[in-house]
Amino acid sequence: MRRKTFTYFLILALGISASKAQEILVRAVLDTNRALIGDQLKLNIEVEKSGDWQVNFPALNDTLSEKVEIIAVSAIDTTPMGSGRVKLTREVLVTVFDTGFYEIPPLHFMLTSGLHRDTLKSLPVFFEIVSVKVDSALHDIKAIERMPLRAMEVLPYPVAALVLFLLTWVIIHYIKKWRKRSVRTQAGVPDEPAHVIALRELEKLKEEKPWQHNRVKYYYSRISEILRAYIEQRFQIPALEQTTHEIVQIIRVPMVGAAASQNLAAILQLSDLVKFAKVIPDAGESAVQLTKAVAFVTDTMMSEKIQTDEAPGEMIISNNNQVLQHD
Amino acid sequence: MADISIQIKELNEKIERESAFIERINQEIRKVIVGQKHLIDGLLIGLLSDGHVLLEGVPGLAKTLAVNTLAHTVNAAFNRIQFTPDLLPADLIGTMIYSQKNEEFQVKKGPVFANFVLADEINRSPAKVQSALLEAMQEKQVTIGSNTFELPRPFMVLATQNPIEQEGTYPLPEAQVDRFLLKLVITYPSKEEEKQIMRENTAHEFPAANAILSTDDILRSRETVKEVYLDEKIEQYILDIVFATRFPADYHMPSYTNMIQYGASPRASINLAKASKAYAFIKHRGFVIPEDVRAVCHDVLRHRIGLTYEAEAENMTTEDIVTEILNNIEVP
């Protein structure tokens, strides 16, 4: 009798538990059961329950088992399923850095409904982690890939060459034009010969007659300046930057003749005395200096004449009253 | 020719008279020194312009002998100081020493108290000794302790130095080098001159110069040199030359702007004028002409221009710069 009663109660208790268990479903599902080492696997944890049950998901730390590491854990998502039932889901991203067979152990869920408490656990999940397949066979070195030649790749070169050619042509053309123009300018306005300038300046000085207007120092400074400028242009020596002694040393008898050399020395030395030693020659003496200066210029001047009609390039040079001819 | 200004004519005559001793002094010096005309002219310019002279050249070019000889042609006190690395300022100007007999400090004057002081190999001593000469050279006086002493007149420092590239030399500070009226660069004698030098030095007796001048003669000549006429045009020429060392671009030498670190000081203008007057005096002239300025220009300016690193990298010397300036500035 006692045994019968126990059996009856046991069947009744199991019936109640079964009815409760049917109300709640827990599940842990992995998206694959085979993955490469280091791959990320998604573990879906699902709970289906009726509204009056409170479910506590298992606490998840860094790992699920010894080598199964947790990378990320999502928030719990709730989806209504109708008839007062809801589905709670949570995604856990896991990975393993070693090869072999692994097990995600059962996850424990705490259930509460009023005074009733229970624990449910999911089934263990098995999966395999494999390594990357290594090809150990030896292969030949691959040949260089030949890419097909495209027009856009070649086009810049002929274009650049063309631009360079055009640029060179323009520059050469411009230089030629500029040369022609400068030659024309030179031909149009010939430089005045040194003696022309000197004689004109001396003539101007003669008209001014500064020695008669108490401007003796100015007069001798001008004579000296005109002659030195003439010597600079005529003999190509920097006479304006040279002293009387230096000029006289260069312009000697063999170069210009005795009379011209003596004239020059006399004028420059007297000019120095007037300029630097307060010497005041009389009016007659001063007038003579101008004549001597003109004589020096005319004795040493160089005149050039280019005969263009009969013999182009023929040049007649009169130097110190000597006429030379060049073909 | 005509009316020469009486004033200049008289001056010319006076200078011809007063400068007659130049030939005699030249003769005396030439008894001992062969060649080196430029050196002798430079020493005379220094003597007549109340300036100090720095002589530079490699050893054995008769720098010391020339100074010695010049000093001996004048009947004056002469001291020679050999500059060494361990020389002290007190060895030069003097010091206070304790007299046990009198129980007080007494002044012991140094060798700088003489009419002619030969500072031999001046750049063998460090700057503090060289600078000890500054007051003596500029102010013609020396301060020992709390007492200041006038130096005898005429007072002239003739310093010799080896080229600064040589080992164991200290370059003279700019402030001191500027106080030398002239820096003469001594070059080797010609073959003929050297033959004569060799003969004189191997003969039984080495010639000696006689004293032909007194200190009063020198002081009087200095006063006459001051009277030499310097026209405004020459003054302008001197200023142009000195200003060209400072602002070369203004004188058609823009490429020299980066070559010159600092140009010549106003002391250069003063000394160029003084030296030009002395040179005219030596040539027995009562007025200065551009030749005189050009003749002394290198000696007056070569130690007053500072070169940049760029100029040194291009092996340019102050000599080149002065030459270029003279070639670019119009002569009046």
Structure description:
The complex is a heterodimer of chains A (327) and B (332). With 327 residues, chain A is α+β, with helices and mostly antiparallel strands. Among the domains of chain A are: 108 residues, Immunoglobulin-like, CATH 2.60.40.680; 107 residues, no CATH class. Helices cover 44% and strands 26% of the residues of chain A. The radius of gyration of chain A is 60 Å and the shape is rod-shaped. The C terminus of chain A is likely disordered. With 332 residues, chain B is α/β, with parallel strands linked by helices. Chain B contains 14 helices and 13 strands. In chain B, the strands form five sheets. In chain B, strands 3-6-9-1-10 form a five-stranded parallel β-sheet. Chain B is globular, with a radius of gyration of 21 Å. At the A-B interface, helix 6 and helix 8 of A face helix 1, helix 12 and helix 14 of B.
Observed structural traits:
A: 327 residues, alpha+beta, five-stranded antiparallel sheet, 9 helices, disordered C terminus, B: 332 residues, Rossmann fold, Helicase, Ruva Protein, domain 3, 2 domains, five-stranded parallel sheet, globular
How would you briefly describe this protein structure?
The complex is a heterodimer of chains A (327) and B (332). Chain A is rod-shaped.
Query: Which class best fits the helix and strand makeup of chain A?
Result: alpha+beta
> What count of domains describes the coordinates of chain B?
2
Give me the CATH fold name of the largest domain in chain B: Rossmann fold
Structural class of chain B: alpha/beta
**Cα distance spanning the termini of chain B:** 22 Å
The proportion of residues in beta strands of chain B is 15-25%
Strand content of chain A: 25-35%
* Total count of strands of chain B: 13
Helix tally of chain B?
14
Biggest chain-to-chain interface with counts: A-B, 22 and 26 residues
What oligomeric state is this?
heterodimer
Mean pLDDT of chain A: 81
- CATH topology-level fold name of the domain at 23-130 in chain A: Immunoglobulin-like
